[in-house]
Amino acid sequence: MPELTHWLLYAGGLAVLVTAGVLILRSQRVGLGALPWLAVLRAAVQLSIVALLLRGVLAWWWALAAFLALMFVTAGLTGARRASALPRGRAAALLGIGAGAVVSVGSIMGLGLVERSSQELVAIAGILIGNAMTASTLSLRHLTSLLRDRRGEVEAWLALGAAPVQSTAELRREAIREALIPNLDQTKSTGLVTLPGAFVGALFGGASPIEAAAFQLVVLVGIFLGQSVTASLATWWASGSPVLPAPDDAAVA
Q1: What burial class does residue 179 get, using C-beta atoms within 10 Å of its C-beta: 0-12 exposed, 13-18 middle, 19+ buried?
Q2: Are 104 and 222 in contact (CB under 8 A)?
Q3: Are 215 and 203 within 8 A, CB to CB?
Q4: Is 246 buried (19+), middle (13-18) or exposed (0-12) by CB count in 10 A?
Q5: How do residues 195-221 score in pLDDT, each as one tens digit?
Q6: CA neighbor of 221 nearest in space, from 190, 247, 177
Q7: Distance CA 197, CA 200 (A)
Q8: Rounded to two decimals, what is the model's pTM?
Q9: Where are the domains of the chain?
């Protein structure tokens, strides 16, 4: 009974927080319908399943490989869906996320920056794959917006004989920069403005403050590397198409 009471209070506390957020948005006439509740409920179900699966995942190498593949496939499909407005956006997202995740996770594990264990691998991979997905979404969506806004400029370069990648080079650079800024801002403010989840989680897991800080620094650098690879490769592949994304009005129609 004490355990049941604990979980009931826990669920009630979360409901209060979500309700407060919904009421604040409604006071500003921002209607999201049931989306906040559905998002939290989905997260709760997915995290519960993951928590149960991890018991087996950490015990067998084949289960670990399958779980990592599931994370990548989910991130890839999500990123591809977000980039569907670009002619080569889906493939660009999959390519960028895959390369960013492999390079960043492989580099960290290969250099021995964290302990080579299944627990560390799952933790690092989960963070870096998710951030590679974010970089793909931000860079490709920003590239799409730039291509629509500056369509005439790109078409002029193409008319002069420039290759698609050459005609969009400046737009690609801007899209990559915009995708990396949020993580770089967080990196600069870590320890002063924010205490990131990896640092707090390591402390709660029994690590010393120094060990937690070292782990968090590895995560931040890994995110930077992974996002750099993802945004660069995804935008490069997407910009190789001679077909520009449809204007906003056509996309809506």
Answers
A1: buried
A2: yes
A3: no
A4: middle
A5: 677 777 777 677 778 888 888 889 999
A6: 190
A7: 5
A8: 0.78
A9: 1-57, 60-252
